[in-house]
Amino acid sequence: VGQALQTYISCPENVDQGTHPVKLPSMQLAIYLTLYKRGLLPTINDNTSTAHYLNTLPLMDDISHFPLFWDNTMLKELQQSNVKRAIMTRRVEWHQEFQLVKKAMVFASLPE
Predict the structure, then answer these.
(1) What pLDDT was estimated at residue 86?
(2) Distance (Å, rounded) from C-alpha 6 to C-alpha 54?
(3) What is the CA radius of gyration of the chain?
(4) 63-88 pLDDT, tens per residue?
(5) Which positions ≥6 away from 104 have C-beta within 8 Å?
(6) Can you give the pTM of this predicted structure?
(7) Residue 19: its pLDDT value, please?
(8) DSSP of 16-42, one letter per residue?
(9) How far is CA 51 from the centre of its chain?
(10) Are 8 and 108 in contact (CB under 8 A)?
(11) Distance between CA atoms of 69 and 21, rounded to whole angstroms?
(12) In sequence order, what DSSP letters do the residues of 47-67 get, joined into one string?
């Protein structure tokens, strides 16, 4: 998926998709970590420092208390604060990145 994303973004006709190539490594890392934590990738040898690090990363249930993952009812409590604006901006960015990944998968003929 990461390679499909890189190929898709590097095509001149896809430059206007809103993702600067500088964001590509962080998007690829996010894809990898998501797939790894969901058990969709082979596990890494448990004796490596990488495996120890990956096993310390939280699951979604462990971070649901972060404001970024609150539902809209809870976000209303923040009213018009800078925190709420930052959360909403990040959510829009995530949505755009997700749409870009979906387009890259279709471009590479990968199953969605």
Answers:
(1) 94
(2) 23
(3) 17
(4) 888 888 898 899 999 999 999 999 99
(5) 1, 4, 5, 7, 8, 9
(6) 0.70
(7) 58
(8) GGS--GGGHHHHHHHHHHHHHHTT-SP
(9) 20
(10) yes
(11) 26
(12) TSHHHHHHHHSPPHHHHTTSG
* Whether residue 46 has pLDDT greater than 90: no
Q: Encoding tokens for residue 75?
A: 């976000």
CB 23 within 8 A of CB 11: no
- The structure tokens listed for 98 are 């997700």
Query: Which residues neighbour 31 within 8 Å (Cβ) at sequence distance 6 or greater?
Result: 1, 2, 5, 101
Task: State which amino acid sits at residue 59.
Answer: L
- Residues 104, 4: contact at Cβ < 8 Å? yes
Query: What stretch of H or E contains 73?
Result: helix 72-75
